[in-house]
């Protein structure tokens, strides 16, 4: 039977990933309205990646014979400028990093190798998201040049 604490991590992670999907999709729409097609496309791709993370977590829940909890999603943080939007997204990604670090450490401690492997893979990918955001933020400088206010 599944360790309830691991199920808790999986449930929390699905909720996080679906919240991220919602945030990135909404931001993709917003930045399209700002006329920033390239940024909009990259946010849409990001939403796809987070959806794929949710899918992998759900696969694991199904393995334990459980349905995803379908709990509450976090509120979407849109941002009033590109800079602000990226800061929100960086914070979101760091939340994921902390969550997956904790989940991975617990699974390793208890010998749940397959769950540890999944959390470890997702942890690497969330770090990659943080690095991508950092690169975009550096490329945008202080953010005033295209940090269009609305
Ligand atoms: Fe993710
Ligand atoms: Fe992410």
TrEMBL record:
Transmembrane segments: none annotated. Its EC number is 1.16.3.1. InterPro entries: Bacterioferritin, Ferritin-like, Ferritin-like_diiron, Ferritin-like_SF, Ferritin_DPS_dom. It is an enzyme of class 1 (oxidoreductase). Fe cation 3 binds at residue 49. Keywords: Heme, Iron, Iron storage, Metal-binding. One of its GO terms (biological process) is iron ion transport. Belongs to the bacterioferritin family. This is Bacterioferritin. It comes from Thioalkalivibrio halophilus. The lineage of its organism: Bacteria, Pseudomonadati, Pseudomonadota, Gammaproteobacteria, Chromatiales.
